[in-house]
Amino acid sequence: MRFQIEELRQADGVGPYLQWVEPAVGEIYPQERGPESGSSARNFLVKSLGQKESVYLLGREEKTGKFAGFLFIARREDSFLATSSPFAYLLFTHPDFRRLGLAASLLVEGEKVLKERGLTKLIAPATHNDDAIISMGERRGYLREREYMVKEL
Q: Which three-class secondary structure state does DSSP give residue 26?
């Protein structure tokens, strides 16, 4: 199956695609999901568009044009170290299109866009037990850099 990937650059073009942000947040960050998480993520996405570090890619099935997935990258600040880097906040593939190479294609295109903008690093989160994303990242040259410990209080 082949996919068409397009970059959405301005907030006025993303309206119809924001419906997928909340399900992606719920799936990717289930422990963080609350009543406001989806709308906060949508607001952050719209606010971030147009920044050098922001990339919003939409994947469609080539023949039908059906939505298949997306990648959202934006600047992530580390105030303590006074640094920032592009961060892949959401990499989401619709269940009908999983295991067909779309996520890897979205990452390849996202890396290409960032390089064209003069950026040299992309941080992509992976939870400790997400073997699929860790394996795909390692095949693509990503290295594990840090792990966090979390305790519910």
A: helix
- The residues, ordered by sequence, that sit 6+ positions from 2 with a Cβ below 8 Å of its Cβ are 61, 62, 63
Q: Which of 35, 47, 39 is nearest to 74 (CA)?
A: 47
**CA–CA separation, 153 and 145 (whole Å):** 26
- CATH code of the domain made up of 3-139: 3.40.630.30
Structure tokens at 40: 């906060």
- Going from the first residue of the chain to its last (153 residues), give the mean pLDDT of each consecutive group of 10, the final group possibly shorter: 89 75 76 66 86 93 92 91 90 91 94 96 84 86 80 79
Cβ–Cβ < 8 Å for 14, 8: yes
